[in-house]
């Protein structure tokens, strides 16, 4: 996907304005919402251009591509977010590059992250992915299992839960998306009453190019925006 620097700058600043406006409309501080620029369909030169425009948080879906881009852009102070499914056999190589793992989608994966983080002497920041829409094709914990799962995850010494992540249903448009986002916010609010003290649920990663404003209205703190930045 090719985009001129002029168009990229226009798109980037427009997205920031839309985030700011959506937050204000929801009665929230715009500084509480962070843009994660999704780099799935662009090469490292576009990422570098966005970085030069002021973007610091970038999201990648595929581990192998994350490795390549992180290597090529190692001179930039980028916070890489792993937003796609991470296979356990790719944890070891990926972990040193990941600022925040959004797709903490199973106990199996988080146990693997915990072991590798322990071996490296670090603590990995993660979000627990919730299959809030119930789509069979999606990864993630079921909403009903989250309380028990968070109790188990809280005992992993080298994993630090920062919040929840979800994707809206593939069908139903923005109206259905808003319903899914509200379900995640309510689930977070319920879980905050029962989770162990060492579990933070301050972050809600939800909303993409077509629905990030709805997500902000329902409490998103991280929005994962890709295509509208590059069109």
Give a quick summary of the entry:
Helices cover 42% and strands 17% of the residues. With 231 residues, the chain is of the alpha/beta class.
CATH fold type: TIM Barrel
Biggest sheet character: 8 strands, parallel
Distance between the termini: 8 Å
Number of domains: 1
Provide the β-strand percentage band.
Answer: 15-25%
The CATH superfamily is identified as Alanine racemase
Structural class: alpha/beta
**Number of DSSP strands?**
8
How many helices? The count is 9
- Helix-residue proportion: 40-55%
Average pLDDT confidence is 96
Question: What is the CATH class name?
Answer: Alpha Beta
Written overview of the protein:
- With 231 residues, this protein is an alpha/beta fold.
- The chain has one domain (5-230): Alanine racemase (TIM Barrel), CATH 3.20.20.
- It contains nine helices and eight strands.
- Strand 4, helix 5 and strand 5 form a beta-alpha-beta unit.
- Helix 1 (5-25) crosses helix 2 (44-53).
- The N and C termini lie close together (8 Å).
- The mean pLDDT is 96.
